[in-house]
Amino acid sequence: METMCWYEDRLELLDQTKLPHEVVYVKCFTAEDVARAIKTMQVRGAPAIGASAAFGMALAALKEDDADRQKFLARMEEVGRHLAATRPTAVNLFWAIERMLAKTRELVQSGADLKEGIVQEALAIYREDIEMNKRIGHYGNEVVPAKANILTHCNAGALATAGYGTALGVIRAAHAAGKDIHVYADETRPLLQGARLTAWELMQDNIPVTLITDNMAGYLMRKGMIDLVVVGADRIAANGDVANKIGTYTVAVLAKANRVPFYVAAPGSTVDLTLVNGDLIPIEERGHEEVISLYGQGVAPQGVKVFNPAFDVTPHELITGIITDKGIIRPPFVEGLKKLFTGEEE
Ligand SMILES: CSC[C@H]1O[C@H](OP(=O)(O)O)[C@H](O)[C@@H]1O
């Protein structure tokens, strides 16, 4: 099952708001269509929204008159701003948009075919993400013992990326290595990415999975039923603080209290070295309807006040290791992140 498919004139996205009951693809012919799909979470997950935005810029490029190259560039910058305004937390979105604009500027200067070059850059982002996730799986497999019971939160799988997944990439690699692992998936209120997406995705691959509600995680850890936690990330600050789906911090505190290793899996495009710590990561707040209803069925009194932060920040002190496409970084994260993603030593 592909998360996204590129065609000559469109991007087709698996509509994740319809899973697990329906497998339908939404057709995006314009950058606006892609922006809408990101905003409404038909496509979601840090690397997936980055790759989708890249294809959104490719769609805009294909429709834009490229006779005046400076005007073309100005239009692409306008499209980039529109896509960047969809969701604030996942740095992959901004990383992908900036990479597409950098390529556009390079093509404008070089005189090369603008449209073809931009489409090829979007395809490169897509393909590289899948390769990075497989490398994450390769490195992450090292920390997964045989017969491990692994807890994960939200969905950091193929559905959250261009394919294979980050946290679920680690799980896929351990499963493929014959380690006989089992996964506990947190349902992940309010949008149930764990129940609707992770459980579905793992069952598609015949990976043993048990669904639990978010408030069961502590019970299982205290009973010794969890051997390690692996989650994804939306933005990793320079000191190793991690923004991820709301509830991740809670799981990390529970893991610390029960001496359960807590790993974060993410590609380099999720690391934001411009932010010294996680307090600076913008946290998206979403609508009240996501909290007071489930599939349109009310679960709270009408008119109740709602607070709906979509992410939280896990301080680096609670993280055992960060599994990246370039290896596993262990504390102190500052040096490791800087070395891996800039090549510089402290
Ligand atoms: C591969 S990391 C995906 C990351 O994004 C998810 O958030 P959302 O479903 O709101 O896009 C969640 O934080 C995942 O860990």
TrEMBL record:
The record marks 154 as: Transition state stabilizer. It comes from the Bacteria. Substrate binds at residues 44-46, 87, 193, 244-245. Pathway: Amino-acid biosynthesis; L-methionine biosynthesis via salvage pathway; L-methionine from S-methyl-5-thio-alpha-D-ribose 1-phosphate: step 1/6. Gene3D superfamilies: translation initiation factor eif-2b, domain 1, Translation initiation factor eif-2b, domain 2. Keywords: Amino-acid biosynthesis, Initiation factor, Isomerase, Methionine biosynthesis, Protein biosynthesis. Its EC number is 5.3.1.23. The active site is at residue 234. GO terms for molecular function: S-methyl-5-thioribose-1-phosphate isomerase activity; translation initiation factor activity. Pfam families: IF-2B. It is an enzyme of class 5 (isomerase). The keyword Isomerase applies. One of its GO terms (biological process) is L-methionine salvage from methylthioadenosine. It catalyses: 5-(methylsulfanyl)-alpha-D-ribose 1-phosphate = 5-(methylsulfanyl)-D-ribulose 1-phosphate. InterPro entries: IF-2B-related, IF-M1Pi, IF_2B-like_C, Initiation_fac_2B_a/b/d, M1Pi_N, NagB/RpiA_transferase-like. HAMAP family: Salvage_MtnA. Catalyzes the interconversion of methylthioribose-1-phosphate (MTR-1-P) into methylthioribulose-1-phosphate (MTRu-1-P). Belongs to the EIF-2B alpha/beta/delta subunits family. MtnA subfamily. This is Methylthioribose-1-phosphate isomerase. It comes from Thermincola ferriacetica.
